[in-house]
TrEMBL record:
InterPro entries: AOAH, GDSL, His_PPase_superfam, SGNH_hydro_sf
SUPFAM superfamilies, alphabetized: SGNH hydrolase (SSF52266)
Top-level taxon of origin: Eukaryota
GO term, biological process aspect, one: lipopolysaccharide catabolic process
Signal peptide (UniProt feature, chain positions): 1-22
Keywords in alphabetical order: Signal
Coiled coil: none
Protein name (record): Saposin B-type domain-containing protein
Species annotation: Triparma columacea
GO molecular function ontology, one term from the record: calcium ion binding
Residue stretches spanning the membrane: none
Pfam families cross-referenced by the UniProt entry: Lipase_GDSL
Length: 763
């Protein structure tokens, strides 16, 4: 299954290697990546992106902004890198090695180790650490033996620049009363001796000394010249001091009498001194059992999610039934985006005309997560308005030109326009003259139709930017938008690509193609009346056994809508997954059963005159032969990368991406047997569509491309070494569309003689 590949595991597993050790340790590399994601600049970017999804209107907007700010704090607070790495299972198998044939050649520069990286990250931030004094002899007394040992430990093992940053300034609370021993000062005296820094001892919680507020002010003032301030304070006054430094009281639990070990970490922006984050951790002097990282991460994330939803919606419903992001196949860190984006969908939707109660989070998220329906969809017609491109919006399906009316959306036949004169099907052609509506004058005789692609990650155009992995240019820009589209680029894909090439991954030259070409583009070039009539229901990891959900997500009305050219394209996952062995591959019997189930479902949804095409599965032997000896951006060979992924149990395709040729051949035999089933489906009868099997001539297609003098590796994704690249997508589209033109032109509908006239009036 591919679901786990969405961002998290892919990045984390692959980046392991760039630590540069001959025997890389998985966890430290994971920590680096998570650390990068936590850096201040990126967080600012995340926060901005989230806020752009907030609803308008002052009250809702303010609540939403507050929720985002709080979420960002939560991400920082809870996302202790080690915990994330543990919970993602990334420290489980450190004996898997990528660089078996180390060194290869031209190795990318390795990333610095984690302490160096962390120091780099923290250059943008200033820090205040708040501790309690050590254990005391009696309630008002001086440090006892344990307290003194603690104070030594703080100097040697806590603020030593490794576990925590070394201080540039030290503050201690002055009790300034005749009876209390000055145990805060005692606690940081060894640290002061070790660092040579004086203890600032002019402040305390008592009013005469300025109180907690005065102390907070002095500490922030100090941050102008110091990067890191260590504070020892009286425990009942730690929370008030922390609040005075800007932390929301809602984030603070009361400090128990028995607790001498906790540390509050407050991070501030180096320039503005604005509070960025608040975290709680421990000195580690009192031996405490480490909590189970996995379960605590889970409950914390879920609690956070529910908390935010409730905050933002005034407890309008019970959010406790919401499932975690794991159910969406997204990394946990994506959860806040979902929460806010979902809120946006909630707040802008009306309840009418919808099967789903839009104020019921479970239901909305369900439709989004399981049926890949857009989150932003006011009228519930499964199309999003212009500008709502991500989260299964217009990158995936044509623009809804009226998102307040469920009867108006792409694909509707033109009949109703003859009555209303409005653009009912959002193809941009509307109005008319005495002769009739332009829709009827220009489109009726042209046999228009839509393009709908049901499929997998190759359909959705999965792509990880190489810059996210290349040690020399690690660059996470645009990560938010990419996550919101599940790391897919349907707007650039072979089936429904329609975007500006500048907004797509880099494309190597493909003879005969300039820019983005897709089946949809081909259809639109034939007939402008097809404009905007596309649906990409590509889901990372989809295989025939899950194809029913794809069919359910398809939006078409047998009566009201135009016919469609549908591709049911599952190019690999039925034989591809991370499991060793052949047991997890789909058998021909299951394939037949599930394919028929899905096709029967399609028969209930597609208007008569439609076509359904299934292309043969990809040729895994060809894929391996093309890639295995090449060098991956990380500096090793693809062969070594594939074996490494297999060792981790995280390979996208154990069977094809395997250095054992007998495994590759047997996997290809199984793929061929499934193709044989698809071929047999051609003899089945369906009421509303004709089924076509396309035995894609992969080898010939690649050989033809090779004649242009370009390397075949251009056709495959650089990072994963598995999916078609942007050039691969273009080549597939050219080949698939060419085959339809030659062999099944009837499936494409007509070529419109009015195209030029339509262009001159409408486009
Ligand atoms: C929300 O929707 C889910 C799924 O449709 C349903 O099971 C649940 O009862 C609904 N909850 C409320 C409060 O209506
Ligand atoms: C209406 O527009 C069409 C298309 O431009 C044109 O062919 C036709 O002559 C027009 N009819 C009238 C009455 O102007």
């Amino acid at each position: 299954m591919f679901l786990g590949y969405i961002l998290g595991l892919w990045l984390l597993n692959l980046v392991v290697i760039v630590t540069g050790d001959a025997n890389p340790e998985v966890c430290s590399a994971c920590v680096i990546v998570v650390g990068l994601v936590q850096q201040a600049e990126l967080q600012g970017q995340l926060a901005d992106a989230l806020k752009s999804h907030c609803p308008g209107g002052t009250v809702a907007q303010r609540a939403c902004y507050a929720g985002v700010d709080r979420l960002m704090m939560g991400v920082e607070e809870k996302a202790v890198p080690e915990e994330i790495c543990l919970s993602a299972g990334l420290c489980s198998n450190p004996q898997c090695q990528l660089f078996k044939n180390w060194p290869v050649k031209d190795l990318p520069e390795p990333l610095p180790d984690w302490p160096t990286t962390r120091r780099m990250l923290e250059q943008h931030q200033k820090t205040i650490y708040i501790n309690r004094h050590g254990e005391k002899k009696w309630s008002l007394g001086c440090l006892n033996e344990q307290g003194q040992a603690r104070s030594e430990y703080i100097a040697s093992s806590v603020y030593n620049g490794e576990n925590y940053l070394a201080p540039d300034a030290i503050f201690a609370c002055q009790y300034d009363d005749p009876i209390d021993c000055e145990r805060c000062k005692e606690t940081v005296t060894p640290l002061s001796a070790k660092t040579g820094l004086p203890i600032v001892f002019d402040y305390g919680y008592r009013k005469v000394l300025g109180g907690n507020k005065g102390a907070a002010k002095a500490m922030k003032e100090k941050l102008k010249t110091a990067d890191t301030v260590v504070v020892a304070w009286e425990h009942n006054n730690i929370n008030p001091l922390t609040e005075a430094l800007g932390v929301d009281s809602g984030l603070l639990d009361s400090w128990p009498e028995s607790d001498y070990d906790s540390i509050y970490t407050l991070k501030f922006d180096a320039k503005s001194l604005e509070l960025l984050s608040f975290t709680k951790s421990s000195e580690g002097f009192s031996e405490k059992k480490k909590s189970n990282a996995h379960s605590s991460m889970k409950s914390v994330t879920k609690a956070l999610f529910i908390d935010v939803l409730n905050t933002l919606t005034d407890n309008a419903y019970d959010a406790s039934s919401v499932s975690t992001t794991e159910d969406f196949g997204l990394p946990k860190i994506a959860l806040p985006y979902l929460a806010v984006a979902n809120l946006k969908a909630l707040s802008s939707s009306s309840l009418e005309d919808s099967e789903c109660d839009r104020f019921n989070v479970t239901c909305r998220l369900d439709a989004f997560a399981n049926y890949h329906e857009p989150l932003a969809d006011r009228d519930g017609d499964v199309f999003s308005a212009e500008g709502k491109d991500v989260l299964r919006g217009t990158h995936w399906r044509g623009i809804d030109c009226n998102d307040k009316d469920a009867s108006i959306h792409p694909g509707v036949s033109g009949v109703e326009e003859e009555v209303s004169g409005q653009d009912i099907n959002c193809n941009g052609i509307f109005g008319g003259n005495e002769t009739g509506t332009f829709e009827s004058i220009f489109c009726d005789a042209s046999d228009p139709r839509g393009v709908i692609i049901l499929g997998d990650s190759a359909t959705a155009h999965f792509h990880v930017p190489p810059a996210w992995l290349t040690a020399k240019s690690l660059d996470f820009s645009n990560i938010v938008l990419k996550v919101l589209d599940e790391l897919d680029y349907p707007q650039c894909s072979w089936g429904t690509g329609h975007a500006d090439p500048e907004d797509c991954p880099y494309q190597h030259p493909v003879p005969g193609i300039d820019g983005v070409f897709s089946i949809y583009e081909g259809m639109r070039q034939r007939n402008r009346c097809n404009t905007n009539d596309y649906q990409n229901i590509g889901v990372n990891g989809a295989r025939i056994t899950a194809s029913m959900n794809l069919a359910k997500s398809l939006q078409r009305d047998t009566v009201r809508d135009k016919p469609a050219l549908v591709w049911l394209s599952l190019m690999g996952n039925d034989v591809c997954n991370g499991h060793e062995g052949f047991d997890h591959m789909t058998t021909p019997e299951t394939y037949y059963e599930k394919a028929m189930e899905t096709l029967r479902e399609l028969d209930t949804k597609l208007p008569s005159g439609s076509f359904v095409v299934t292309p043969g599965m990809f040729d895994g032997v060809l894929l391996y032969d093309t890639m295995h000896a090449q060098q991956h951006p990380l500096g090793t060979t693809y062969e070594a990368l594939y074996d490494f992924m297999n060792c981790l149990g995280e390979s996208p395709c154990w069977g094809w991406l395997n250095s054992d040729i007998s495994v590759r051949r047997k996997t290809q035999d199984i793929a061929n047997s499934l193709n044989e089933v698809s071929r047999q489906l051609e003899s089945e009868d369906f009421q509303n569509f004709k089924f076509l099997f396309y035995e894609v001539p992969w080898k010939e297609m690649f050989a033809e491309y090779a004649k242009s003098g370009e390397p075949l590796t251009n056709l495959i994704e650089k990072v994963d070494g598995f999916h078609p690249s942007q050039a691969g997508n273009a080549l597939f589209a050219q080949n698939f569309f060419g085959w339809l033109e030659r062999e099944h032109e009837e499936s494409l509908g007509g070529t419109n003689p009015f195209n030029d006239e339509i262009d001159s009036i409408f486009f």
